[in-house]
Design goal:
This protein has five helices and no strands. The protein has helices at residues 2-18, 21-43, 49-68, 75-97, 103-133. Helix 2 runs antiparallel to helix 5 (103-133), helix 3 (49-68) runs antiparallel to helix 4 (75-97) and helix 4 (75-97) runs antiparallel to helix 5 (103-133).
Length: 134
């Protein structure tokens, strides 16, 4: 079991080390989505507030990382900042209240952002491979 865990960690490490910036953003949105769903699961049936808190804190840290990496010299970053701020405020509120009524809207925004960044990554990768062939 420990061997499989080490292999998984090594694979993840290599994936991160070889990813483009756009691919890293996709990975961050995937991790945020996963943690929000785990928080939701932790609050179902027999609520585990500690686990929910841990997952919501991870989601908050991911959004904070996305905010920290914005280059405000680009117009796109100025447009993304209010979206990321909304996500961060919503996740903080859900964590403080353990009320997940905003979760569907947050997950929808995260899914949309992820899809957009995935398309950006694909476009960059296809452009890079075409340039390599020339």
């Amino acid at each position: 079991m420990e061997y499989k865990k080490n292999l998984k960690q090594e694979y993840l490490k290599q994936s991160v080390m070889t990813a483009s910036p756009a691919e890293l953003v996709v990975m961050l949105f995937d991790a945020c989505n996963k943690n929000l769903k785990l928080a939701e699961y932790a609050l179902e049936d027999r609520p585990d507030y500690l686990k929910a808190n841990q997952h919501l804190l991870k989601a908050q840290k991911i959004i904070l990382e996305l905010i920290a990496t914005l280059d405000m010299s680009f117009e796109l970053s100025k447009q993304l900042l209010p979206i990321y701020d909304y996500l961060l405020r919503s996740i903080r509120t859900m964590n403080a209240t353990k009320n997940l009524s905003e979760l569907p809207a947050v997950l929808n925004i995260i899914a949309t952002q992820r899809e957009t960044w995935e398309q950006v990554a694909k476009h960059i990768n296809s452009s890079s491979s075409k340039e390599a062939c020339v």
